[in-house]
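Aggregate trends can hide what the representation actually does to any particular protein. For completeness, the protein is quoted in full, as a sequence line and a line of structure tokens.
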Amino acid sequence: MGQKGCCRVEGRQLNEHVTLGVLTEAVPVAVVDEVLQQTGRRNWRARHLLPRVMVYYVMALTLYAHASYDTVLRELMEGLRWLRWEGAALDLVCKSAITQARVRLGEAPLRELFRRLAQPLADPRAPGAWYQGRRLVSFDGTTIDVPDLPVLERHFGRPRVGAAAFPNCAC
């Protein structure tokens, strides 16, 4: 496993081949289509970046946060071509087209998908996932800015390094 190139297929990383499959397993196409219909985003005029493609693209952006928009789109399109999805035969579009398609999609479909599909993975019987009836959650090294109110500053304090605009909760 530790050898260089062991997880490569046809010169590409294995994860580049499975991303779309994993996304469609976790977020089924039928559910995406229902949500797009419900939120009024199902049918756009004929464009290269169809609503369904954009939903999976936004999800892929979170998986490849280190990569550029066009690199993520290129990887997604390879997966779409492999699955023979409608709209996958297109050449890459310019960055402004990507931005416009994301604006057209808006947040409503993604919010609704989250509402429908997001759920805790740990069953109440899972050992180590619960303590006294409460789910255990951990945030490693995360800080959250809280409103600049005296009561919150007293409770959470401010960062010790430099002047901070807001108190923050170190999780």
